[in-house]
Amino acid sequence: MDRLKSRLSFTLIAVILGFMLAIQFQTVKKPEERDTRDIWQLREALLKEKEIQANLIAEIRSNEEKLAAYESSREQSKEKTLRDTLQELKIEVGLTEITGAGITLVIEPVLEDPGIGSETKHTVPSELLRRLLNELNMYQAKYVSIDGQRIINTTVIREIQSETKIDGHSIKSLPIEVKVVVNDMEGAEKLYNNLQVSKSRDEFFIEGFRLNVLTPSPSITVPAYENPIRIRFMEPVKEGGGS
Amino acid sequence: MWLPILGLIVGIIIGLLTEIRIPAEYSNYLSIAVLAALDTLFGGIRANLQNIYDEKVFVSGFFFNIILAASLAFLGVHIGVDLYLAAVFAFGVRLFQNIAVIRRILLTKWASNKEKLEKS
User: Fold this and answer.
1) Which InterPro entries does the entry link to (chain A) (predicted)?
2) Alpha carbon distance, N-terminus to C-terminus of chain A
3) Low-confidence ranges of chain A (pLDDT < 50)
4) ipTM above 0.95, yes or no
5) Which residue, A117, A145, A157, A175, is most buried by CB atoms nearer than 10 A?
6) Angstrom distance (rounded) from CA A128 to CA A126
7) Is A20 in Cβ contact with B41 (below 8 Å)?
8) Which residues contact A203 (CB under 8 A, 6 or more apart)?
9) Does the distance separating the beta carbons of B62 and A21 come in below 8 Å?
10) Phi, psi at residue B61, to the nearest 5°?
11) According to the model, what pLDDT value does residue A50 have?
């Protein structure tokens, strides 16, 4: 009985010892087999892995492309594109208010020395304004308004019964403000410098007006064009039933 | 006689099959525990052969030695002295002594058996 018991405990201890030995063996012997491949086999294996990598990268790329396509189709549906285009066109035509870097010009009559026989002027000759506009456009002005009237491509400036009208709005009282918006502050500085020495100033002075150029400001607001734009000589292109 | 060896084999098989791996930083403790277990086992065999075997001493010695060795190694790691070497040394020396004693006992037994056989 005693012998049996002692044998049992011996066996138990032996089992535990064997268990511990096996674990220790496994822990110490980590690389299970030595790498006996020669350089060509290694190269082959490397090639295979690289192929797998390339495949995986291609897969990732295609998935990303799909994702981007879904995103763009969601974001830029036809309606959104149309709206964007419409907005772009509106800005281009001049139907929106624009705020940006630019300068303000003030046209006022010369009061000090009216000269003989001259009377105080109430309106600016249209020819002068047209020349001023030409000059502004020459100096990269992008959006211009005169006396609160937005100047667009179809704007007409003319004199009706010695009264200057801009698209039907008559200039009755002086001084008037001309607001010009350009691309950026640098452009505004350039425009300012150009106007300081421009011919327009002299021309205005000859006619009895003074053209004051105020210093450039980063936020000049040009109002939107108010009148409806009538299109008389344009019609959409019809190509094969498409838009 | 064969039962403990069978147990050892069974233990090794179980250990290999479970595929348990201990983190490398703990393998020190396990190695010293294995050494302590081996020492206790051979001590037990010797005591058995000398007929001074005591079950309680054997079993308690087994676990106590393992724990002591492991905690010695632990302490050594923490105070920066390789104290586990002390355990390795102590257990190693005792292992050799025990095995030598076992060998002598077995030799005398073998010799006396031979004498008996020759006499009869």
Assistant:
1) DUF881
2) 105
3) 242-243
4) no
5) A145
6) 5
7) no
8) A128, A131
9) no
10) -60, -40
11) 96
Report pLDDT for A120: 60
**Residue B10 in domain:** no
Residue B85 is assigned to a structural domain of this protein:
yes
Confidence (pLDDT) at A48: 95
Instruction: Give the per-residue pLDDT at A2.
Output: 67
CB B37 within 8 A of CB A12: no
Touching check for A25 and chain B: CB below 8 Å?
yes
**Polymer length of chain B:** 120
Q: If you ran DSSP here, which 8-state letter would residue A171 be given?
A: -
**CATH fold group of domain A97-113+120-222:** Alpha-Beta Plaits (3.30.70)
Specify the DSSP element, H or E, that contains A159. strand A157-159
| Phi, psi of A160, rounded to the nearest 5 degrees | -120, 115
**Domain region containing B40:** 24-119
Query: How many angstroms separate the CA of residue B117 from the nearest CA in chain A?
Result: 26
Q: Is B37 an 8 Å CB contact of chain A?
A: yes
Q: How confident is the model at residue A138, as a pLDDT? A: 85
State how many domains chain B has.
1
Does residue B4 sit within a domain? Answer: no
What's the gap in Å between the CA of B87 and the closest CA on chain A? 17
The answer as to whether B75 is a domain residue is yes
Compare CB distances from B44 to A10, A24, A26 and report the shortest one's residue. Answer: A10
Query: Which residues in chain B come in under a pLDDT of 70?
Result: 1
What residues of chain A lie within 8 A of the CB of B53, using their CB? 6
Residues 50-79 of B with CB under 8 A from A: 53, 55, 58-59, 62
Tell whether B21 lies on the interface with A, counting CB pairs under 8 A. Answer: yes
